[in-house]
Write a structure and sequence with these properties.
single chain, 73 residues, alpha+beta, three-stranded antiparallel sheet, globular
């Protein structure tokens, strides 16, 4: 059930970001990254063609905390 809810939220968020305008290209959902031998997963990964930048989206429950920013960097 939790996995189904997560998938539904990610689909809606993905559609919203793609509606923001030209330039966004969807790359992957649950993108696996290996950092210092440890697996991490980004919820959504986009590429913005005009800015030539990757745009990572990480979903968190609760209030934003400073450590969340550190995790993304």
């Amino acid at each position: 059930m939790e996995k189904d809810l997560e998938e539904a939220i990610l689909r809606e968020l993905e559609a919203f970001i793609l509606e923001l305008g030209k330039g966004f290209a969807f790359i992957e959902r649950q993108k696996r990254m290996i950092i210092d031998g440890e697996d991490f997963y980004l919820d959504l990964l986009f590429y913005h063609r005009n800015l030539k930048r990757l745009v990572a989206v990480e979903l968190k429950l609760g209030k934003f905390e400073a450590q969340h920013k550190g995790q993304m960097e």
